[in-house]
Design goal:
There is one protein chain. Helices cover 39% and strands 21% of the residues. By secondary structure, the protein is of the alpha/beta class.
């Protein structure tokens, strides 16, 4: 079945998600639009350049319908969704566009006049790069410049690794790459307005780990958000903190904690540590790590084993182009990753599966209930995981258009238990049916039980480099 939104074709997937037949994958819409443009024989090239504050520039090209085509209105929708994906996967504040001036003007209005556009401009532009998003229509695009750097892999000495999630915080004491203690503490950081809650929680976890080490040589951690030199630029864990208090107490929180402990401390996005953990455990590169937890975390390790300055915030990239898709309550946009690869997705699918939960049940408890039903062989729970697997398959196909992918590591509490296997089976089926060339190219991985328990902690602990040998 073919739907349209602003003349952009929305294609029903050949592998239908059992509990969400209205799902219209972005990757299929993009493919159909490209075919429509090619059929004209007169497509109009559009070149894009996204600039970051450190001088990094990412280039991307697309082609749109010629002016006067009866479905030329699809150009604006195609370009807006594409730029949205580029903003959250790559990052940047200045967008240079070599193409029709009307399309540039439309993008400018989107970021100035719509709630979703203003959110992107404030969060990606102002908070991460200190500038609101700027659209420049020009033929003179800056040259591509990608900054890469090695990440972690320092295992010597006595280290602490931590991971701060929306439902729990984890910590481990690591000696020469071996975990000697680990702990997981439930907490609720999202809507706490006082950052002292976050500070005290992390210090409590660090002290627990330090009690199992003869000394602490370094501390490394991961958390949702964007971090530059361990300074918080954007962090969903701190979304309840007001802007003024955020600037005063949160932005340098991890730097201050490192000073308090008197050791090197480095914090990066949790998705990057996920990818690093996978790369270290599997001995591979060109790997995208996707963690399905409270929200969606993602990170990417390049073919040469480094990371880039890209954001990789796949929680906010558009994956469902149906305008009736679920809306993300933070960004206000529809069809974005957080609603498809997370506990939120499980909670959303529970009513459609016919499973009853008490009103007000927290999402982690809803997930536990579904996992318990899955362990009992409940078909309703299985349909939830089958639906998640379809989402994952089409999502990975879309991501492959922007990343050099050979490996995809899938983890997070949503994937625990038998449901994770069902998800991966259905994701592989999507690639087999719709994208056979990707099915031959991409290998899915899940961490084994040891890596599930300790891989992220070891990778996080390995982040700081200790100059000289530990004492």
């Amino acid at each position: 079945m073919i739907m349209t939104t602003n003349e952009l074709p929305l294609i029903a997937p050949r592998v239908t998600p059992a509990l969400h037949p209205e799902f219209r994958p972005g990757v299929l819409a993009t493919r159909a639009f490209g075919e429509m443009v090619r059929d004209t024989g007169n497509g109009v090239p559009v070149r894009l350049a996204l600039e970051q504050s450190d001088g990094s520039v990412f280039r991307h090209e697309t082609t749109v319908l010629p002016e006067g085509h009866p479905r030329a209105a699809a150009n604006a929708m195609h370009l807006e969704r594409l730029v949205k994906f580029l903003l959250w996967s790559r990052g940047g504040w200045k967008i240079s566009l070599d193409g029709p001036a009307a399309l540039a003007s439309g993008l400018e209005r989107h970021y100035a006049d719509t709630a979703a556009g203003r959110f992107d401009s404030e969060v990606v532009g102002e908070r991460v790069y200190d500038h609101p998003i700027s659209i420049v229509c020009t033929r003179d695009l800056p040259d591509a410049r990608v900054v890469t750097r090695p990440l972690g892999r320092h295992l010597e000495g006595n280290r602490i690794g931590f991971d701060l999630g929306g439902s729990d915080r984890k910590v481990a004491a690591v000696v020469d790459g071996r975990v000697v203690f680990s702990d997981e503490t439930v907490w609720d950081p999202y809507h706490k307005p006082d950052p002292q809650y976050h500070y005290d929680g992390l210090m409590d976890s660090l002290n627990k780990a330090a009690a199992h080490l003869p000394r602490v040589d370094a501390i490394g951690g991961s958390a949702a958000g964007v971090y530059v030199n361990s300074r918080v630029r954007v962090g969903s864990l701190f979304r309840g903190v007001g802007r003024e208090l955020f600037d005063a107490r949160v932005r340098n929180m991890f730097v201050d904690i490192g000073r308090a402990w008197g050791v090197p401390l480095e914090v990066v996005n949790d998705g990057e540590v996920t990818a690093l953990a996978g790369s270290m455990a599997l001995g591979v590169s060109s790997i995208l790590g996707i963690a399905l937890g409270t929200s969606t975390a993602a990170g990417y390790v390049t073919r040469d084993g480094t990371i880039t300055s890209w954001l990789n915030e796949l929680a906010f990239v558009p994956v469902d182009y149906n305008p009736e898709a679920p809306v993300d309550e933070w960004s206000g946009d529809y069809g974005v990753g957080s609603q498809y690869f997370s506990q939120q997705a499980v909670g959303r699918l529970i009513p459609a599966a016919g499973i009853d939960v008490s009103p007000g049940t927290p999402l982690p408890d809803q997930l536990k209930h579904v996992q318990a039903l899955m362990a009992e062989g409940d078909d309703r729970a299985r349909r939830i995981y089958e639906t998640l697997g379809v989402y994952l398959g089409y999502g990975v196909a879309q991501f492959a258009g922007f990343y050099d992918l050979r490996h995809v590591l899938v983890l997070g509490r949503v994937t625990s238990g038998a449901g994770g296997d069902v998800m991966l089976e259905r994701a592989r089926r999507v690639l087999d049916v719709e994208f056979p060339e990707l099915a031959r190219q991409i290998e899915f991985h899940v961490p084994d039980e040891h890596d599930k328990r300790h891989g992220q902690a070891i990778a996080a602990a390995s982040l700081p480099e200790v100059v000289g040998s530990p004492p």
